[in-house]
């Protein structure tokens, strides 16, 4: 019985990832995200609280830079608070999701598929499997796994 439960839990992220990729590719990501927030009260509350927090800090039309924007959670909160955002994200899958999440803000959003650094150079980005986590440090994955 235990292996069946473990197997079911391991399948959830895969199914969720597949559904997310389908929603992004079919243009239904944003409506699905809205429904998800309505059904998940904690998710909705967290987003509203972030927008309220940033609304107190940012004047309408402020310019924000989101370095390492990932899937755009902060980018979306900045935009909803009235700011314009330049979002930097090197991972193609994350950038696709960020764009699907925030494209309706139009010209207030600019995206750049790049890493920010002190000088122009080519670098290796080390990715975790099936997640949006990455680092420029080669051994970060072993540190992360032992730290948590």
Short account of what is shown:
With 148 residues, the chain is α/β, with parallel strands linked by helices. It has helices at 2-26, 29-39, 41-57, 73-80, 92-102, 140-147, and strands at 63-67, 84-88, 109-112, 126-127, 134-135. The chain is 54% helix and 12% strand.
Describe the structure.
It is a single chain. With 148 residues, the protein is an alpha/beta fold. The chain has a single domain, classed as Rossmann fold. The protein contains six helices and five strands, in the order H-H-H-E-H-E-H-E-E-E-H. It has helices spanning 2-26, 29-39, 41-57, 73-80, 92-102, 140-147; strands at 63-67, 84-88, 109-112, 126-127, 134-135. A hairpin with a 6-residue loop joins strand 4 (126-127) and strand 5. Helix 2 (29-39) packs across helix 3. The two termini are 27 Å apart. The relative contact order is 0.11.
Largest sheet: 3 strands, parallel
Number of domains: 1
N→C terminal distance: 27 Å
Total helices: the number is 6
Principal-axes geometry comes out as globular
Calculate Rg over CA atoms.
Answer: 17 Å
At CATH level 3, the topology is Rossmann fold
Count of strand segments: 5
Q: Roughly what percent helix? A: 40-55%
User: What are the low-pLDDT stretches, counting only 5+ consecutive residues below 50?
Assistant: 1-7, 144-148
Architecture, according to CATH? Answer: 3-Layer(aba) Sandwich
Going across the biggest sheet, name each strand in turn.
1-2-3
Under CATH at level 1, the class stands as Alpha Beta
Beta-strand proportion: 5-15%
- Derived from helix and strand composition plus strand pairing, the structural class reads alpha/beta
Order of helices and strands: HHHEHEHEEEH
Average pLDDT, to the nearest integer?
85
